[in-house]
């Protein structure tokens, strides 16, 4: 039932770079300020949350600014990365995120512009228990 998902050898370096940035907005080494998050995201960024709701870039930035105004501790695990090139310098990275008892499938659309990675789109979907 599951698709075969094996990243092409030529994309392994891209997958390594991008997987080091996931889960997005939860890697303090890439920044924890609104300005840093603005630099990470494309001007047209938007996301679909696990609830199915759509969120604008401005809304996500507001939430992140509020979240990082407090101390947070997260113990999350990423696995099962897969990277596809969908257009020149544009890549879809998918993976599984384990958040304690909650498991989600994640998809992030990344674009490399002038040597910098920008997040164009992100989605998280909760995995239902069998």
Automatic annotation (TrEMBL):
<feature type="domain" description="DUF4440">
    <location>
        <begin position="33"/>
        <end position="119"/>
    </location>
</feature>
<protein>
    <submittedName>
        <fullName>DUF4440 domain-containing protein</fullName>
    </submittedName>
</protein>
<dbReference type="InterPro" id="IPR032710">
    <property type="entry name" value="NTF2-like_dom_sf"/>
</dbReference>
<dbReference type="Pfam" id="PF14534">
    <property type="entry name" value="DUF4440"/>
</dbReference>
<dbReference type="InterPro" id="IPR027843">
    <property type="entry name" value="DUF4440"/>
</dbReference>
């Amino acid at each position: 039932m599951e698709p075969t998902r094996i990243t092409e050898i030529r994309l392994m370096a891209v997958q390594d770079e991008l997987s080091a940035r996931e889960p997005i907005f939860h890697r303090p080494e890439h920044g924890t300020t609104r300005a840093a998050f603005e630099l990470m995201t494309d001007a047209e960024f938007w996301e679909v949350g696990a609830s199915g709701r759509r969120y604008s870039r401005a809304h996500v930035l507001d939430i992140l600014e509020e979240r990082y105004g407090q101390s947070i501790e997260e113990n999350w695990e990423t696995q099962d990365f897969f990277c596809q090139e969908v257009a020149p310098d544009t890549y879809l990275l998918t993976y599984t995120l384990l958040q304690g008892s909650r498991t989600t499938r994640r998809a992030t659309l990344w674009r490399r512009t002038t040597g910098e990675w920008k997040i164009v789109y992100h989605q998280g979907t909760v995995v239902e228990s069998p």
